[in-house]
Amino acid sequence: MSNILLHADNISKKFQHYEVLDNLSLSVKRGDIVSLVGKSGCGKSTLIKLISGLDSDYSGSIYINGKPLKPHSSQVGVVFQEPRLLPWLTVAENIGFRLGKAGAKHPRVNELLAEMGLQGKNDYYPKQLSGGMAQRVAIARGLFCRPKMLLLDEPFSTVDAFTKMRLQDLLRDAAEYNQATLLFVTHDIEEAVYLSDCVNVMQTNPGRIKATVNIDLPRVRNRNDPCLAALKSQVLELLDDRGGECAAKEENGNEANDMALHLAKLAL
Ligand SMILES: Nc1ncnc2c1ncn2[C@@H]1O[C@H](COP(=O)(O)OP(=O)(O)OP(=O)(O)O)[C@@H](O)[C@H]1O
Ligand SMILES: [Mg+2]
Fold this sequence. Notes:
By secondary structure, the protein is α/β, with parallel strands linked by helices. 35% of the residues lie in helices and 24% in strands. The strands form two sheets. It has a six-stranded mixed β-sheet, with helices on both faces. The chain has a four-stranded antiparallel β-sheet with strand order 2-1-4-5, with helices on one face. It has a single domain (4-213), classed as Rossmann fold. Mean pLDDT is 90; it is low at 244-253. The structure holds adenosine-5'-triphosphate and magnesium ion. Adenosine-5'-triphosphate (ATP) is lined by residues 15, 20, 38, 40-46.
């Protein structure tokens, strides 16, 4: 079995005459936590919609597990920036939504509620939840069908700093426990380097993967690790497209990555 779970091959996407994505290719390894960063408007959410199967109007191919992506596949779960819970359904009904009303009674609901630290909240309605709780319910809903891949589009951008840190750790542990592969979009570069096995940096106009920064550190990380600070600087430089200096750095992406890690380790 190949170790590549997701392969997006030469994806192009137009809105009217505007080519948002042009020959974008991206591979995600099975079991990895992968982030996608890039300036506003570069096409991150557009790409997530294509991979989730919500939009099939594009050219190129997307393979999950070596097979062409099918719309509404239960192999892919999605979590958006806002929880998007259905207000007339309880927490349990929202989590088990894919199975209809019966989903609320499925044993997986209680399992996921426990994992998300929401035991006993089955019968709450979305309006009774805080923003962080609602987003945990959205993650539980995304994991309900045991998707091979969970896509998350800026999942923690609307919560406070402490809730965000807690949710990041919870997501990392949930990915491990559920053996899910994650692809998440974020504007928070600290979050990207803290959580990811690799960070994909997108360029704008046309939207494409400009560079991939591998993060060869244990999954459970110290937020104050100087290696993370060095990697954050590297990603920020790749995002900064002013001047020709970046082009050279991009060419030497992996070498720069190794050097940054090496220097940070020496500083320990
Ligand atoms: N339905 C649509 N119709 C027309 N243009 C669209 C549509 N959706 C997105 N676009 C355009 O495609 C481009 C990419 O949008 P997208 O939402 O993917 O960006 P993004 O990278 O997710 O940005 P952000 O970081 O601000 O969320 C933008 O120029 C946007 O205006
Ligand atoms: Mg977006």
